[in-house]
Specification:
The chain is of the alpha+beta class. It has five helices and 13 strands. It has three domains: 63 residues; 103 residues, Roll (Outer membrane lipoprotein wza fold like); 67 residues, wza like fold (2-Layer Sandwich).
């Protein structure tokens, strides 16, 4: 403001840059001037433009920060839309299932899903149902009987007799580090609930930089997510059913220690 006031005063001396608020000129424009008056307006504008250039580079660098420093195995979590309902259960290896075909007792079977996600069905052999919902598994088995021309319109039902135990590991600044078991019948759990089951954060936990490591079987690589728990807790307001981030079996949660 001081520099701007000096410019106005020099305009006043040339009689062209005044205004009703700053007497001495025509009032048409504060920056109009007589080229021969020697005022510093052009110099002032050049300095202003030069001063703005570094800020452009600063803002560009700040915009690039979320991208820089992350390799192919890492991703910064962006808040997702809140889930309208709990996710469905997907059949997992070592779940025990009972499969029945209406009116065909010889085809009924109870067995544990193999580590490859397979069950051995009478007349059909191995059928892959791991990773499917119960409904999708029933359709898969039904369609297999039809395609093999063994049954015309079978009614297949599948029930889960026993859920396989599923665990998530917590390390770092939680009160009880180690493995926790997901509730029976769950494929995932809210990250807030997982940390609560481990006794909550310690007093030195860096809650804004929690890291979740997950094995991506489809791409055969590890993926790392960075989660801001403070933001999630603020958004969820205690309603973990609509959380923005869930952890899955065999995920590893690491809570770092803050420096100050």
């Amino acid at each position: 403001m001081i520099a701007f006031g000096k410019v106005i005063n020099r305009h006043n001396r040339c009689g062209r840059g005044g205004s009703p608020r700053f007497p001495g000129g025509t009032g048409a424009s504060r920056l109009r001037h007589n080229p021969g008056c020697g005022c510093a307006a052009p110099s002032f504008l050049r300095q202003l433009r030069r001063a703005a250039v570094p800020f452009v580079f600063v803002f560009a660098a700040l915009a690039a920060l979320p991208v820089l420093g992350l390799n192919d195995a890492e991703a910064v979590l962006e808040p997702e839309a809140e889930a309208a309902s709990p996710p469905p259960y997907f059949l997992s290896p070592f779940d025990t299932v009972r499969i029945s075909v209406y009116g065909q007792p010889d085809l009924n079977t109870t067995q544990r899903i193999s580590d490859a996600g397979l069950v051995a069905m009478p007349l059909l052999g191995n059928i892959r149902i791991g990773g499917m919902t119960v409904r999708d598994a029933q359709k898969t088995i039904r369609n297999a009987f039809i395609e093999e021309e063994l049954l015309r319109d079978p009614v297949v039902s599948l029930a889960i007799e026993e859920f396989a135990p599923k665990q998530v590991t917590l390390l770092g600044q939680v009160n009880r580090p180690g493995a926790i078991t997901l509730p029976s019948g769950s494929n995932s759990i809210a990250i807030e609930s997982a940390i609560a089951m481990a006794g909550g954060f310690t007093g030195t936990a860096r809650r804004t930089r929690v890291r979740v490591t997950r094995h991506d079987a489809a791409e055969d690589r590890e993926r790392v997510f960075q989660v801001d728990l403070d933001e999630i807790l603020e958004q969820s307001d205690g309603d973990f059913s609509s959380t923005t981030f869930r952890v899955y079996p065999d995920d590893i949660i690491f809570v770092p220690q803050r420096l100050f």
